[in-house]
Amino acid sequence: MLKLLTAGESHGPALTAIIEGFPANFPVDVEKINHELKRRQGGYGRGGRMKIESDRVQVLSGIRGGKTLGSPITLMIHNRDWENWKDYMDPFNPPVDSSRTPVCPRPGHADMAGALKYNQEDFRSILERASARETAARTAAGALAKQLLSLFNVSILSRVIQVGRVRSPESEFPLDKIQQIEASPVRCSDPEISREMIKAIEKAKQEGDTLGGVFEITAAGLPPGLGSHVQWDRRLDARLAAALMSVPAIKGVEIGEAFNTALTKGSEYHDEIYYNSSRGIYRTTNHAGGLEGGITNGENIVIRAFMKPIPTLSTPLRTIHWQTRKATTAFRERSDVCAVPAASVVGENVIAWELAKSFLEKFAGDVVEDIIHSYNHYAERLRKHGFKLKPIQRDGSFVSL
Fold first, then answer.
1. Which of 59, 148, 190, 333 has its CA 20 to 30 A from that of 363?
2. Mean pLDDT of the region 201-217
3. For residue 46, what pLDDT is reported?
4. Does residue 86 belong to any structural domain of this protein?
5. CA neighbor of 248 nearest in space, from 110, 41, 43, 47
6. How far is the C-alpha of 2 from the C-alpha of 361, rounded, in Å?
7. pLDDT of residue 401
8. Residue 182: partners with Cβ closer than 8 Å, 6 or more residues away
9. Packing angle between helix 30-41 and helix 340-362, nearest 10 degrees?
10. Exposed, middle or buried: residue 284 (CB in 10 Å: 0-12, 13-18, 19+)?
11. What is the pLDDT of residue 334?
């Protein structure tokens, strides 16, 4: 089973990801991991931290000669800002600068809830790990998962469809506008809507406020049959929703056209099934978002995440002083005004991780050649039932990407 464990604080020496269960003999392109890390750091509305960090991954174990060994893979991302914080974040010596000790919890952050749970007086002991900086480690792991899925012609894409009250009118993912999305500072395919989103972010910044929004992820090329209906914790829709909900500031998830289901009739909502000899089994709609009964049905997975505004405001909200309980305002530190574009990239990679995990459960094997053999055997079986799934080519002892 594919497993992931991350560690590290926002201003600690580094973030690490330990990956277990990744098959052997898979050729890894480390620059593709670095590319995902760079994408995560972009987006209009990011704060000063992104001017300091330039994330690149260091591989500590599990890969030799450019190929996975089947043993645990350790990925490390150094925090450049550690040099500015090491006197305060030292593992054994007490903080040198007490002015960095926050004592006024931010509404909407883990500060107070975490301090109560772990009996901490210094919120720094909570917020360092609760920080979205942790998602850099998961993005690196997801980038590795993306490479595995791409071998089987699976692609995972994202776009921002709303920032604050500015929303894109496009209903379907514009696959022909990927370059525009990647070039947009807010990851929106519509140039005019992008400009309106930027204006909204600038206005929030001037007002000392923050903005949330909505992003959409599409996973194309997945075979039917990933996930399962037989136990609640194997339903893939539940697992994908949980993966996105684990990203800081995500407060809601929609799969397909879920939020419209209460307004429609069954005859309008459900995706009818067709067949012809050239296309095989197909649908003309995808209201279900590619999942039925917790199982992929061969259509694109479409999933949206709803992100709340970031709780660190330059015009702070009302709160209390942690020691005196007197009314005051929340503490401030460097933060983003809007992180929805960056969160969409994180979302791609946490979804990639969960899909790769489900993929390896379905097509298990210690080495990638065995996984390809299992996949091709399954593709042959599906063809007998009218579903066309292309087999994957391989060259004997190694896989050619």
1. 59
2. 96
3. 78
4. yes
5. 110
6. 8
7. 43
8. 39
9. 140
10. exposed
11. 77
Q: Write the CB contacts of 359 (distance below 8 Å, at least 6 apart in sequence).
A: 148, 149, 152, 154, 226
Is the Cβ–Cβ distance between 389 and 383 less than 8 Å? yes
Scanning the structure block, which residue is given the tokens 């050239």? 278
CATH (domain of 116): 3.60.150.10
Cα 306 → chain centroid: 13
Domain for residue 392, yes or no?
no
Q: Widest CA span of the chain, in angstroms? A: 75
Total residue length of the chain: 401
pLDDT digits (tens, 9 = 90+) for 236-256: 999 999 999 999 999 999 999
Residue whose structure tokens are 């015009």: 315
3 state DSSP class of 188: coil
- 213-220 and 155-163: which strand pairing? antiparallel
Q: Where are the beta strands (DSSP E) in 84-145?
A: none
pLDDT computed for residue 400 by the predictor: 45
Query: Quick one: angle between helices 368-384 and 135-151, nearest 10?
Result: 60
Would residue 59 count as lying in a domain? yes
Answer whether residue 370 is part of any domain: yes
Rounded CA separation 58/73 (Å): 11
Residue 33: give the domain boundaries.
Answer: 3-378
What is the number of structural domains in the chain? 1
Distance from CA of residue 173 to its chain's centroid?
18
- Report d(CA 73, CA 50) in Å as an integer: 26
In angstroms, the CA 150 to CA 213 distance is 29
Asked if residue 137 lies in contact with residue 8, where contact means CB atoms within 8 angstroms, the answer is yes
